[in-house]
Amino acid sequence: MKDFFRNMLKLLLIILVSSMLEASDEKPYFIRGTNEGCFVGTEQNWLPLMASKILCRAPLKIKTGENAWGTIVYPFSSITLRPQSEVEFKQDSLIIKKGSFRAVVFSISNDVKFRTPQVLLGIRGTIFSASGNGGVTVEEGKVEATSENGSSSMLLPGQSLGASESFQMPATLQRIEEALTYEHDRKYDEAANIYLDLFKDPGFANLPDYRSNLLEMALTDTINSDSPQSNSSKTKEVYQTLAEALKEFPEVWYETARNVLSSESKMDIAKMSELTPKIHPFDPANPRDQLIKGLQAEIQMNDKSLFEAVKGIIYEKTLASAAETLQGFWADTKTFLQLLTFPNTVTREQATNMISPDSLKSLSPTAVKKRILVASSLPNDLLEAQGLYFLIKAYLSDNRLDEALKVMDFLFKHHPNSPWTLRGKNAIERFKISEKNAKIKVNQTLETASQTEDLSFVSRMVSNLNSAIFEKNQNKENATETLQLPGESVTGKTASAPTPKLNDKPMTPSGSLQRGF
């Protein structure tokens, strides 16, 4: 039985990592760079874009008027939509219909394609411009242009295909494109200085979302910069500007901190630690500041600082009360740090939400493995139902129906009313009918050699967990559990229900995980 659960937890780790990678959200935002002149809709019904920032879901079109422009922000690329231009968002592609855009691609995405009306553009990590008349110009990297008849050509730096659009570049847009180029070339100091200058530009006074975006990019570039710390007047001026700007947009600090901490980059985290007292002094009464301190301590393997940070959040009444309103990354981080230090203070709902796909998809593979390692070391009854479901899916993907049926039998006996039991049964029935392997693609191999040091601290902390504190109370916690259909949560909300507000009742474990899958 021990070997059974050991194997189950190994497969649970692998499958959850791959699920997180496959669930990445590639939907872009469009952020207006001008007060007016941007429109959203269709050919028959164009409306002025009043919001300064919108999420671009397919199908959607955006166009800019004379001297109007904006930025399309993907997780892997920043694209400036130039004046008198129009783009269309499809389910898996961005099409330039007229005018032009300039794209700075920081990493490759296989899920999103760039197109002109004439050609499909294959990107290899690059800077390029594309226009609605079919023109493509490459500045850096490579672009493979494939026409509708299947013929293709590889464009190298300095090469063009077709005619490019000509127009008068607005000064602010020219500066934005200059800063994005600096970022692409890893000249982060130069990029940060441009963003801060634009942040102070009166032309952006009525565009709070764009100013917030400029500040976040400036702060991120300042952290990414590998320039040595100095006491030069220029450096002090940058820090002073950041400090004043963060008073106006305090959430930018926490969003940037979340991104840095999620990446598990020790270099960036160390830089952020040095930068914190200069631009965002530590607030002992703010639970997010305490969590930043605690997560930094966990990554840097500082036991004392970790325990102090978590102890304050849990046992100081003011902090504990404020921490109850935490959501998303911050709530899950609190759970993770509690499991390492004071596991008896964690509920089932918190532990399960921590490893839901929604919670894991924005984390680095290293961070995902840490959280699964902690969760898998808890008593089996805390995660047993969904863990067994994952194991069934793994066996079916390997055409091992007999093993899947044995696990299904175990699941029926121990969790007859769990939604995961019904899902496991349905998965087996589908497998029998189709006789095909519903393959689960594991896109990330476990980097055991390089991750040993990163995981050793967590492993040491996990060894201190006291499983006795998680004894079941069937009468209290399982009295209301009922069998749910796939796609339904135990709260009755649909899988696509929006994220609960601060005052909403916390989502149950089954509800959270069903929404994620």
**Roughly what fraction of the amino acids lie in strands?**
5-15%
Radius of gyration: 25 Å
Number of strands: 17
Using the alpha-carbon principal axes, give the shape. Answer: globular
Q: Average pLDDT, to the nearest integer?
A: 76
- Number of helical stretches of at least 4 residues: 20
Q: Determine the fraction of residues in helical runs and give it as a percent range.
A: 40-55%
User: Order of strands across the widest beta sheet?
Assistant: 3-2-5-8-9-11-12-15-16
Could you give the distance between the termini?
Answer: 28 Å
Low-confidence stretches: 8-24, 436-453, 466-517
Structural class: alpha+beta
Q: Biggest β-sheet: count, sense, barrel?
A: 9 strands, mixed
Can you tell me about this structure?
With 517 residues, the protein is an alpha+beta fold. 49% of the residues lie in helices and 14% in strands. It contains 20 helices and 17 strands. The protein has helices at residues 2-22, 171-184, 188-199, 208-224, 233-248, 250-263, 266-279, 287-299, 303-315, 317-323, 328-341, 348-354, 357-360, 365-376, 380-397, 401-414, 419-434, 448-462, 474-477, 509-516; strands at residues 29-32, 38-41, 46-48, 53-55, 60-64, 70-73, 77-81, 86-89, 93-98, 100-105, 113-115, 119-123, 127-131, 136-140, 143-147, 152-155, 160-161. The strands form two sheets. The protein has a nine-stranded mixed β-sheet with strand order 3-2-5-8-9-11-12-15-16, with no helix packed on it. The chain has an eight-stranded antiparallel β-sheet with strand order 4-1-6-7-10-13-14-17, covered by helices on one side. A hairpin with a 4-residue loop joins strand 15 (143-147) and strand 16. Helix 1 packs antiparallel against helix 14 (365-376). The longest helix is centred in the first third of the chain and has 21 residues, at 2-22. The chain is globular and about 70 Å long.
